[in-house]
């Protein structure tokens, strides 16, 4: 299946989750170390805009990746950004383009399918982050899990994960009987048990 359709489904699921966020929820902690829910939504929103710009040929402009506080408009700003990125990915000719993604290094570019794969795994995991922050359930489509599994395996677990503001933390060990999605979460530095009654979040 076209990675753009898989990404669209992950993004729409995240929009549904974010739509349930109330202003008083924005100060909640999240599985992203040191980030409140407001911080997480600001990151997710700007990443949508950055990837949309990359799809449009303007990803090398560092200003499109600059995180700005969203304040009380976080939910509506997120919905607008999600609509923008899905429209940008769906545009004619996008699968044949190179995406400039400066967050991966100065001058870094990637084929569209690989870049959109990065976006897909980001929003699948961040959807889980939002759900855990809110204390609600998170159902992930098996097809999406299978699609992001090889992407997770390929993400370097290096010093970049230790930098302030990194969306992914150093990988964790999980039991051998863990689900594939739990393994993906652990590879990206999330404890699958975060926020459950057993840990207290």
UniProtKB/TrEMBL annotation:
Which branch of life, at top level?
Answer: Bacteria
Residue ranges occupied by any Mycothiol-dependent maleylpyruvate isomerase metal-binding domain in the UniProt entry: 13-131
Matching SUPFAM superfamilies? DinB/YfiT-like putative metalloenzymes
Family annotation (Pfam families): MDMPI_N (PF11716)
Q: InterPro entries, from UniProt?
A: CHP03086 (IPR017520), DinB/YfiT-like (IPR034660), Maleyloyr_isom (IPR017517), MDMPI_metal-binding (IPR024344)
The molecule here is called Uncharacterized protein (TIGR03086 family)
Taxonomy of the source species: Bacteria, Bacillati, Actinomycetota, Actinomycetes, Streptosporangiales
């Amino acid at each position: 299946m076209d990675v753009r359709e898989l990404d669209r489904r992950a993004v729409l699921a995240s929009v549904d989750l974010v739509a349930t966020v109330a202003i008083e929820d924005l100060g909640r902690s999240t599985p992203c170390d040191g980030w409140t829910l407001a911080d997480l939504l600001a990151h997710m929103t700007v990443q949508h805009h950055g990837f949309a710009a990359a799809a449009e040929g303007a990803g090398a402009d560092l200003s499109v990746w600059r995180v700005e506080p969203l304040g009380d408009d976080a939910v509506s700003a997120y919905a607008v950004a999600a609509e923008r990125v899905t429209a940008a990915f769906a545009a004619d000719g996008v699968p044949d383009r190179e995406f400039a993604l400066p967050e991966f290094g100065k001058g870094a570019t990637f084929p569209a399918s690989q870049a959109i794969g990065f976006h897909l795994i980001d929003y699948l995991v961040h959807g889980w982050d939002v759900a855990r922050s809110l204390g609600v359930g998170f159902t992930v489509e098996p097809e999406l899990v299978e699609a992001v599994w090889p992407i997770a395996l390929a993400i370097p677990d290096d010093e970049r994960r230790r930098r302030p503001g990194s969306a992914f933390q150093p990988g964790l060990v999980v039991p051998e009987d863990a689900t594939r999605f739990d393994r993906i979460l652990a590879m990206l530095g999330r404890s699958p048990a975060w926020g459950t009654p057993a840990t207290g979040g």
